[in-house]
Amino acid sequence: MSSSVALHPFVYLASQSPRRQELLRQLGVSFELLLPRADEDAEALEAELPGESAHAYVQRVTVAKAQAAHARLVHGGHRAAPILVADTTVTIDDAILGKPVDADDAVAMLTRLAGRDHEVLTAVAVVDAQGLSLPVALSTSRVRFAALPDAAVRAYVASGEPLGKAGAYGVQGRAAEFIEHIDGSYSGIMGLPLYETAALLRAARIDF
After folding, report:
1. What percentage of residues in the chain have a pLDDT greater than 70?
2. Distance of alpha carbon 208 from its chain centroid, rounded?
3. Span 12-43, pLDDT tens digits
4. Could you tell me if 208 and 29 are in contact, meaning their C-beta atoms sit under 8 angstroms apart?
5. Which residues contact 181 (CB under 8 A, 6 or more apart)?
6. Which value, in Å, is the radius of gyration of the alpha carbons in the chain?
7. Could you give the CA distance from residue 187 to residue 199 in angstroms, rounded to a whole number?
8. Which of 87, 102, 105, 150 is catalytic?
């Protein structure tokens, strides 16, 4: 692309995650939120398809979120700018562990992860103001949890931190004490792999 093409001064972030906002600020990226409207069924985009692998799932959901965000941009009359979207999931035993539906579900997920390795997958996409998307970037990390006493699991769930998080934990929070080893991207486990994100933003001509 020619260097004479103007840079975009900001990107839309189509995510409510405070962690993704924090990570974008870490890169020095200016952004505005482009969140789902009240009449949008954002949860429906995250429904699994029968027989779908976790790798296929997280990339498909990210593309669907990008398409929904672009429609939101067009119909909402927002000023033109690229849109950044991401989705994170946890997988173990070929199962997809999304956000727990309640405390009991969170306990079951954490008990399943205890003493074992699992994968954290985060897909990232950038779509321009015309709806054209760059190839989806996928960050894959392996995380090993220590063996967890039932009391520790229940105390963590009682803190409320696991709710709303894929796999029922946040690496940047209290769950850090459970983690014996990480092989991969810490920021990817948080929800926005900075290496892949920075490459996508530069390809989309974002100024940062």
Report:
1. 98
2. 21
3. 999 999 999 999 999 999 999 998 887 777 77
4. yes
5. 142, 143, 144
6. 18
7. 14
8. 87
> What is the amino acid identity at position 43?
E
Task: Say which amino acid occupies 71.
Answer: A
Contacts of 70 (CB under 8 A, 6+ apart): 83, 127, 131
CB 126 within 8 A of CB 134: yes
pTM: 0.92
Secondary structure of the chain as H, E, C letters: CCCCCCCECCEEECCCCHHHHHHHHHHCCCEEECCCCCCCCHHHHHCCCCCCCHHHHHHHHHHHHHHHHHHHHHHCCCCCCCEEEEEEEEEECCEEECCCCCHHHHHHHHHHHCCCEEEEEEEEEEECCCCCECCCEEEEEEEEECCCCHHHHHHHHHCCCCCCCHHHCCCCCHHHHHEEEEECCHHHHHCCCHHHHHHHHHHCCECC
Distances (CA, A) of 43 to 36, 143, 199: 10, 26, 28
Per this entry, what is the length of the chain? Answer: 208
Q: Is 104 a catalytic residue?
A: no
Cβ neighbors of 161 (< 8 A, separation 6 or more) are: 169, 170, 173, 174, 175
